[in-house]
Description:
Mean pLDDT: 78
Bound molecules: zinc ion
Shape: elongated
Low-confidence stretches: 1-106, 368-372
Distance between the termini: 34 Å
Amino acid sequence: MSEMPTLGSTEKKSPLVPVAIVASLVGTLSGTAWWLTHREARAEVPELVVAADAPVTPPAPSAEAPVAAVAVAPPVDPTNAPTPTTPLGQAVAAAPTIVPPAPRRGAGLQTVTTTIAGPLESAIVSQVGKDVGQPLTQVVNRSLVWWMKVPGDLLKGDVLTAVYEERAGQEPLVHAVRYSSRKFGKTFEAFRFQGTGDAHARFFQPDGTTLEEQLVPSPIDDYEQITSLLRDGRGHKGVDFKAPVGTPVKATFDGVITRKNWSFRGNGNSIEVEETGGQGRTALYLHLSELPKSVQPGLRVKKGQVLAQSGNSGRSFAPHLHYQLMKGSTVVDPFKSHSTSREQLPAGDRAAFEAKVASLKAQMPADAVAGN
Ligand SMILES: [Zn+2]
């Protein structure tokens, strides 16, 4: 190897690429049980291919990127987290301490720190094993996509830290994500926090803004997390909002209902709305609860009007709304077609949020790259 392309360069094919593709296909197959892998009838492209097109570089020593932080921190009771006066910062500068990747089971908060040297999943699996690492990769990926293109912007030598909790029969619950990016020369952080009056915990950045952008107008107001975006590399055609069954689903523009419950096995209870007097868009709402009798083709609807309730019907592995925009036969990204916003943590929640951040940071090693 005379040249060492970074992970972000796509032109040069490394001989490791076929290996990586096979590896990620194996991961894809074994990971399909997770709820986010549902497929709709209209989504012909297989989902969950996060790492399949990740360009790969043979791991090589790099002067500029410390590859030291490989320790898995011991489990900590989340209700009794240590104070921020005891950071676990030694991992960066000290000689590498290789801890065998023995997955730990279900004992409160755990920390994984890993240096990117290929696909994100490989980096995480190398630390915590496949059973935890594969679903953990999917959850972590949902945070990273708000900051950068995955996998295109991930570079060898970047350092990821996640604080998470294993849960029986469910994907891991991630409490904190930190990503030190060489491409952007900075460290991104997000912390899970439930504000006063919020039905769900959400990820906030250190400045108190939400990690996720909201659609304006949004097809659903009260949701837990966006679990699939068009740009997340999974070839998915819609935006998935994880939300309890029965959450109101709204029209995002004035229009006419043109179809309902087509391709029922895949889509479940579903509504198609064609926009009137606007940009000629079509909105698809899939996996709904049983539709109200009033929902019939030909019915005119107004922007903001509640159309139905979210559900878990059709090919869906957990309650969520699939919202998809089309112009003719072209899929449109709602995050480009709609306005977007980020919410700000209410001032009254700031102190509690800072305390939560401090306790989570106490679980994380010092920032290894960008010194944020
Ligand atoms: Zn979907």
